[in-house]
Write a structure and sequence with these properties.
282 residues, alpha/beta, 13% strand, mitochondrion, ATP synthase F1 subunit gamma
Amino acid sequence: MSSVKELKVRLVGVETIQKITRAMKMVSAARLRTLQRVINQVVVGMKIFPSFFQGDAKLSNEKTRFLLPISSERGLCGSVNTSINKSIMYSLNDLHQRSVDTEVFIIGQKSRDFFLRNCGNSIIRQIDQMSPNNVNFVTASLSVEELLYNKFDQVSIFFNLCESVVSQRVYSFHVKSFSLAQKDFPQVLANELDDATEDINALYSDLYQFGLVFLFIYVLIQSKTAEQASRVSAMENATKNAGEIIQTLRLVYNKARQSAITRELIEIISCANALTGSSRRE
């Protein structure tokens, strides 16, 4: 059995961890409430996202696909990053079987570390300007510009969707390339815009880029919301588990302390009896 001093040190350590997890839960809960207010506004904008931009997981005659996982920069947020990485690995295997050239564009440190360990540098690029912790129109525009420098048939964005504090699931959004989306641009809009502008293709391009920028903002906020919700749940569970460990350690500590006190009393009494007996013999 551990000594009383060792048990005391362990008990203090677990109590400190419980204070940290409780504080992290409170901080994440406050951030979650702020993000929920923001996301209610962003969801309204996504309802008008052009449907003719959307692709398909099984797009026919596809040659090049970009996979874009969105993970967090830090851990301690449950299984949200693991779920994203598993979904990307499944898609990679499926696309390789279909002989589709695939590249992975990383947003978030956790996915970057995972794919560098498991896939090497050959299929990985990182969008440096974008992070779930830095969401604004400027960084989203720079990320879209960097993405559009490359040729692809479709981009598949994988992110976590926050359904509730205790439920987050991986969601994928497929976006066709500009050349494919342009073919599906509603003809009725093209007829109306003929009189308004001379360069229809430039207008299509601006609309496509703006749609991608707004989509990036939407999925990053959703991902950040899911991260904070998962961290609230994870830290709550960690706090409860720490509490159970503290109760167990306190029982063991109290028993060890009482045993030590009893042992010392027995030794004191034995010594006193020995001294008393020695005095009587003299």
